[in-house]
Predict the 3D structure of the following.
Amino acid sequence: MSFKCTKIYEDTYDKYVLISTSDKINLPNFLDKNSKKLAEEIIKKNNFTAKSSEKISMTLVNDKKLLDLRIIGLGEKNKLNNKNIRQYLYDGLKDITGKVFVAFLDKELDNMDVVAEVVEHINYKFDKYFSQKKEKFLEVSYLTDKKVPKLIEGYELSKISNIVRDLVNEQAEVLTPKALADKAVDLGREYGFEVEIYDEKKAKKLGMNSYLSVARAAHHRPYVIVMRYKGEAKSKYTYGLVGKGLTYDTGGLSLKPTDGMLTMRCDMGGAATVIGSMCSLAKMKVKKNVTCVVAACENSIGPNAYRPGDILTAMNGKTIEVTNTDAEGRLTLADALTYIAKHEKVDEIIDVATLTGAIMIGLGEDVTGVFSNDDKIARKLIDSSEKWNEYFWQMPMFDLYKRNLKSSYADMQNTGVRYGGSINAAKFLEEFIEGKKWIHLDIAGTAWASGSNPYYTQKGATGQVFRTIYSYIKE
């Protein structure tokens, strides 16, 4: 167990970490008179003022025992929020392993959820394919006067974040559509939600022709994953989640270059995100009803591959001219959205997808694009992100963008014009929501870290966004 709470100081830890604002460094009472005096002299000599991410380490003799102490700075108290506290804690703790005692010097900042999340985040490493595994971990005992709940939300969600990251980081030859479906079944049993799997034959019977066309050439066959969590039997309101589940994307006949394929294990990031949302809602026993759908498949090349110029008939009867087979995610989501709206009778829908490179051009790697037909629910979701180290920005959805999807041969085309690519994709998806309240989250940037974000210094999956969805539904 990497994190636990304690109400008492003990002298048995490898290291002691104190977290201080720059307003005033109040050393704790568990330091004896001589240790406290020496610590004050070291702080003064090194001009340590507890600025944000600043840290100082020292070794003291406290009650005749060596005490390895570090103080982490948070900067000015009036400038702190949940997001930057995480960053400063991460900066101060990321190089520490072993059994560590952690305490805020200002009790008003006591936040077990944030500390637990940072500890799990530091400990995460996807080293399955390394011959040398990570052996040293950070184990924190956190000093708090607060009542400790049976389930510490920040800790439980961080463990689920590790599941999300493992799913996204796993190589595509291992995490096939079938393997993803099997994993959902296992997680449903573990966390307490129902899972139903539809094979290709069932999907065809449902009329999911747009989705099945994308899957046509793949060796690994497609599976539809339907998850249901009933947290409030008396409520008739059901939230719908849809995740893009491309376990690998070559681009199809509109073939990606090699560099573009290297991270395509991440193209099921939307599926991992909504699966993480289901796990968290069930684990924390949130009293809401949620149904989740993932249309999982691979976009491959072969003699049976769908082609640019093909015209597909989606589940809702609308026809689509394929202008680029690398715009495949929206074709799978089209049928998944129609299915959840018509057959599961949800009241509102959130879909999550690594959908467009265009969103990264507009917002960079660290901000999720939000698209919605209802500004009120979009605002509520964005507000829900304030508790977490996640950033969202609402994009325009003017009807004039619809003209970008016009086709000379079908009801619409699947790519639209070059400019406004992420909005064009969202307007395409809007055609399949059956008039439901709806939010589309484009996580093409935020699902995968390049290593440039100071909080996500490891390249690979971030495990973001599911926490915000969890909070939105919970609240």
About this structure: The CA atoms of residues 34 and 160 lie 44 Å apart. The mean pLDDT is 97. The two ends are 29 Å apart (CA to CA).
